[in-house]
Specification:
The protein contains 5 helices and 2 strands, in the order E-E-H-H-H-H-H. It has helices at residues 33-38, 45-51, 58-61, 69-85, 94-115; strands at residues 6-10, 13-17. The longest helix has 22 residues, at 94-115. It is elongated.
Length: 123
């Protein structure tokens, strides 16, 4: 069974992981392991923003009413970049995003079924 980079849900939140194989969703084109090896190191805006508040817990930093503006901006910019990778507009509503990911997963599953009759989902 192959292990492809994927996205899934934890509670009601989405999460991305290269190691999880249950409920796989396709990773955007150009975001695989080989791309990560070739890419230049990227800035870590979340870490940089969180480092400015060493006495704040993650619960404090991620309180929707009190989130520091630089941390909120880092997340907003990252969200927009991820949506662009998937060919979606930055303001796409969550139902549109989920439907798009499910369609991509359906295409990936069909492709893998035709290439791998044993049923293993691979990338």
């Amino acid at each position: 069974m192959g292990c492809a980079p994927s996205a899934d849900r934890l509670k009601s939140d989405h999460r991305y992981s290269k190691d999880i194989v249950s409920q796989q969703l396709p990773l955007a084109h150009g975001c695989g392991r080989s791309t990560a090896r070739r890419s230049k190191p990227r800035p870590r805006p979340y870490s940089d923003a969180r480092a400015k508040y060493p006495d704040s817990s993650l619960a404090d930093l991620y309180d929707a009413a009190a989130m520091p503006s630089d941390l909120r901006r880092a997340h907003t910019l990252n969200d927009a970049a991820v949506l662009r990778l998937y060919g979606l507009p930055a303001d796409a509503p969550e139902p549109t995003i989920v439907a798009h990911l499910m369609n991509l997963r359906k295409e990936l599953t069909a492709k893998n079924a035709s290439q791998n009759p044993e049923g293993a989902l691979t990338s």
